Amino acid sequence: MEITTEMIKELRAATNAGVLDCRKALTEANGDFQKAVDYLREKGLATAAKRADRVASNGVVELYSHGNGRVGVMVEVNCETDFVARSESFRKFAHEIALQIAAAAPRYIRPEEIPAEELAHETEIAKARAREEGKPEHMLDRIAEGRVEKYKDEVCLLRQTYIRDEKTPIEKLLLDQIAAIGENIVIRRFVRWELGEASQ
Questions:
Q1: Please, is 83 exposed, middle or buried when counting C-beta atoms within 10 Å of its C-beta (0-12, 13-18, 19+)?
Q2: Residue-level pLDDT at 97
Q3: pLDDT at 9 over 90
Q4: Ramachandran area for residue 24 (φ above 0: left; ψ -120 to 50: alpha; else beta)
């Protein structure tokens, strides 16, 4: 199929990819617009993964107050350059992460941060629950494993689903942002306070 300039323009407008990348994507996808978009996204995500080891020491500390001051969030999001740190899209991303933290109350950024004793405790709770539900003894480990994975999805920011789109995990949102901006981005740390909660 012939790849026209119009097709390339349309794909560029939708993805912000370069002309040559758009042409290659359309050629690979045999002119299918949606497949070309998917091709570019996959390529972008692969590139994003390669950038993950680059140093990100610039960025922003985003502050967000919700519900008339009932919930407060402070999150540090880093990137590689000051130029990107000042860009509107990067600031918007940091703000979205702060909103996510306010709404979904994660406790960790990634699963590796969960203490081993907490995971062991959750495993025991999951097994006890499965026993109470009358599940067979030989299935308990597998059931507990599944429930602990669900627990990680709830308490780890990167595994939570995005509050604006339940099909998108935050990790994918982050990788999409890295692919779009072309720099490594790291959600470094966060704190979330809720009025009246007991301090830990």
A1: exposed
A2: 97
A3: no
A4: alpha
Q: Supply 129's token pair.
A: 């629950």
Q: Which of 191, 184, 180 is nearest to 44 (CA)?
A: 180
Q: 10 Å Cβ neighbour count for 8? A: 19
**Residue pair 87/177 in contact by the 8 Å Cβ criterion:** no
Give every CB contact of residue 47 below 8 A, 6+ residues apart in sequence: 179
Residue pLDDT, tens place only, 41-92: 777 654 555 555 666 778 999 999 988 889 999 999 999 888 999 999 999 9
- Residue 72, classed as helix, strand or coil, is strand
Cα–Cα separations (whole angstroms), residue 89 to 37, 145, 184: 20, 38, 14
Q: For the chain, how big is the Rg over CA atoms in Å? A: 21
In DSSP terms, 186 is beta-bridged to 78
Structural domains in the chain, sorted by start: 5-51 (1.10.8.10), 58-109+156-194 (3.30.479.20), 115-154 (1.10.286.20)
CA distances from 27 to 15, 17, 40, 44, 82 (A): 16, 15, 12, 17, 36
pTM of structure: 0.70
Handedness of CA 171, 177, 183, 186 (dihedral sign): negative
